[in-house]
Design a protein that fits this description.
single chain, mainly alpha, 3 helices, 0% strand
Length: 96
C-alpha cells in the first residue's frame, strides 16, 4: 500500500512541475519574452497545451466566463496542491 501512495505522490509531483512550467511559459509568451513562432518554444507550448487541456476543459465549463482571464489553471493548480499536500498525506495516515 505504501508503494501505491508513493507512486501517487510521484505522479502528483510530476503534474505539479508540468503545471508550473506551463504557467511560467504562458506568462513569458503573454509578455512577449518568448515567441511561439520559434520552433522550440512553439513545440514546448503545443505539447504542454495538449497535455493540460484535458484537465482545464472540464474546469472551464464549470467556471463563469471571465473574458480574457482564464482561471482554470489556477483552480487546477490549487486542487493539485490540495491533493498532494493535504488529501494524500491524510490517506497515508489513515491507511498506515
Amino acid at each position: 500500500m505504501l508503494m501505491i501512495l508513493q507512486l501517487l505522490q510521484l505522479l502528483l509531483d510530476v503534474a505539479f512541475f508540468i503545471m508550473i512550467a506551463h504557467i511560467i511559459l504562458s506568462w513569458l509568451v503573454t509578455f512577449n519574452v518568448l515567441n511561439v513562432r520559434q520552433p522550440i518554444v512553439g513545440g514546448l507550448w503545443d505539447g504542454l497545451n495538449r497535455l493540460l487541456e484535458p484537465v482545464y476543459a472540464p474546469i472551464r465549463r464549470m467556471l463563469p466566463k471571465t473574458g480574457a482571464l482564464d482561471l482554470a489553471p489556477l483552480v487546477a493548480f490549487i486542487a493539485l496542491i490540495a491533493a498532494r499536500d493535504i488529501i494524500l498525506p491524510g490517506i497515508a495516515r489513515a491507511v498506515l
